[in-house]
Specification:
The protein is α/β, with parallel strands linked by helices. Helix 2 crosses helix 5, helix 2 packs parallel to helix 11 and helix 5 runs antiparallel to helix 6. About 45% of the residues lie in helices and about 20% in strands. The protein has 2 domains: about 250 residues, von Willebrand factor, type A domain (Rossmann fold, 3-Layer(aba) Sandwich), CATH 3.40.50; about 35 residues, no CATH class. Strand 8 and strand 9 form a beta hairpin. It is built from 11 helices and 10 strands.
Length: about 300
Amino acid sequence: MPNVSDVLTSHDIGRFTNLQVLAKQVVEGFCSGLHRSPHKGFSVEFKEHRSYSPGDDIRTIDWKLFGKTDRLYIREYEEETNLRCTILLDSSGSMAYSGSRTNGVTKHDYAVSTAACLAYLMLQQQDSVGLVTFDKQVRRYIPPRARPKHLQAIINELKKQKPEFETELGDVFHEMVAKIHRRGLLIIISDLFGDVDQLMKSLAHFRHANHDIIMFQIWDPDELDFPFRQWTQFASLEAADNRHLVDPAQVRRAYLEKLEQFREHLTSGCNRHRISLVPMTTDQPYADSLAAYLALRRKSK
């Protein structure tokens, strides 16, 4: 039976257990800072009534109780403090790429480990975590739960994943909007390759539903600096019959220009929709990348 140690090393488990302290300091930080605002005023659990005092928001008055008692009371709620998180994992073909500097680790391997770390961290904090796996369509949806044993279901599903098929993120995310209807945090782990405008339109639907969104964009170093020097055959990982033998020297400048345009377009769209974009490369320890992100969240609060 697969377990946490199948995906995470003991070092990583210890590292992320310690990061729980960091997240708690911020109730304020990665977790409670993200819990804080979208839910305030729309809490799900009623606590008690109290007498109305001048200056109280009239929208919180219980008018039905007023009709029965002819007295003004305010409805108070327990503030929702636990995060409801759904991890969206890209298992499309492009995630199968592994360059010469990653010891055979594909972008998908890296994404799976990152997802497992996040799920472990969230559940240690008694937050709810769910998982969506997708390629050209949603493959599996595990609703968020906060039970410790829920990690096993997530790990089991992560172990089953095999990157294949094409995807268009905008189309797939539109399909997910109806499934993930309760607002919370969405963590997208993907290379984000595709039409940026379509992607942003679908993410705008999630933002309209008051979801917070963090996107971990997974890169192989080869994709960022295009190190190829000799004639090379490039084969699509999503369309087997799409192959091209090219001289890298002739296409390198055009490739890097297109890459820069793509990244600028994506960053601009994320800024416009208040989406956090976190680049990660597969030659760097994913634990270090997540630690840096959590530290950044603490500084911003």
